[in-house]
Specification:
Blueprint (H helix, E strand, L loop, with lengths): L1 H14 L5 H17 L2 H14 L9 H23 L8 E4 L2 H8 L19 H8 L4 E5 L8 H6 L4 E5 L8 H8 L4 E3 L4 H9 L6 E6 L10 E4 L2 E4 L3 H8 L3 E10 L2 E6 L10 H15 L9
Parallel strand pairs: 1-9, 2-5, 2-8, 3-4, 3-5
Antiparallel strand pairs: 6-7, 8-9
Helix pairs in contact: 1-2, 2-4, 4-8, 5-6
């Protein structure tokens, strides 16, 4: 029954782009949460994690609300990218907040355009801070499973940067995500190759390089944990620590819905020793989850 429900949910996701909004909303609201709630392990994990975090949250969402919110985010990602692919003038806008961080990356290469030549530049950068950031051989953008995270790589690549993303092999039920990635000029590679990729980026043989990953998950052979809402949780912090040792700038990001489009927000780089990247990234994640608890993938 659970496998059948998952098949129906996957079909509903594929139909989202073609169906009228009201009909598609009814389908995913019914099928997507049901497919996951029928799995006892996921249901139990959701309730346990929400219960553990409830003292830290102003409002604790119900499990079904979390699942519906996550389904909404996936559908919104598919709809936005599909609209972008049609080159419609009235299509959704993906707004980037914190673009000066990408401008600093371009400034690190003498052959790259000056920051004032990069679209969206507003000026007013503090010179010393800009000089320090420009020394980074590459930038690591890290986020969590919250919001429209799948839109980030393509949006950053569209600004002329080379984006590399460690990603798990997609399963048969991930047709929507597969369609999203196929439309992007982004390198997706197996997660177990990440150490080699970081070393290659650290050599600085190519400019304008960005590594993007989600840290709220176990990585290949990763047993590291951080404290999240008072509980130990497996965290993919090893790449942040390694990249920091190589001189990379470690920059948090979030992607959220904004009207019919999306907003990508880049936050100030984490400041600290390489060993502090795990706890610092977890502290940042706690604040993001507290701001919108229903939109985080609690069961992941």
């Amino acid at each position: 029954m659970a496998a059948f429900a998952q098949t129906l949910a996957s079909a509903a996701l594929r139909l989202w782009i073609a169906l009228p909004r009201r009909a598609a909303s009814a389908l995913h609201a019914l099928l997507a949460p049901a497919a996951l709630l029928l799995k006892p392990r996921i249901r139990a994990r959701l309730r346990a994690r929400l219960g553990d975090a409830s003292p830290f949250l102003a409002e604790t969402p119900r499990p079904a609300r979390v699942l519906r919110a996550v389904a909404d985010e996936v559908h919104a990602s598919a709809r936005i990218l599909a609209s972008l692919g049609t080159a419609r003038r009235d299509g959704p806008e993906i707004r980037l907040v914190g673009e000066e961080i990408l401008e600093r990356l371009a400034a690190a290469d003498s052959s790259a355009p000056a920051p004032s030549a990069v679209p969206g530049h507003r000026g007013g950068e503090e010179p010393g801070r800009k000089a320090r950031a420009a020394q980074a051989p590459f930038v690591v953008l890290f986020g969590i499973h919250q919001g429209l995270w799948e839109l980030l790589p393509g949006a950053i690549a569209a600004r002329g940067l080379a984006v590399h993303v460690p990603a798990a092999r997609l399963k048969c039920g991930d047709d929507v995500v597969r369609a999203l990635r196929a439309a992007e000029n982004v390198e997706y590679f197996p997660g177990n190759e990440l150490p080699l990729k970081i070393r290659a980026l650290a050599r600085g043989e190519q400019s304008n390089q960005v590594l993007a990953l989600l840290v709220d998950q176990p990585g290949p052979n990763c047993k590291e944990t951080v404290s999240l809402f008072g509980r130990e949780r497996v965290w993919w912090s090893a790449p942040l620590r390694t990249a920091k040792r190589c001189g990379a700038a470690i920059v948090p990001f979030s992607v959220s819905k904004e009207g019919d489009g999306a907003k990508i927000e880049l936050f100030p780089p984490l400041e600290g020793a390489p060993e502090e990247m795990g706890p610092l990234s977890a502290k940042w994640a706690e604040a993001r989850i507290q701001a919108a608890p229903a939109s985080w993938v609690w069961y992941y």
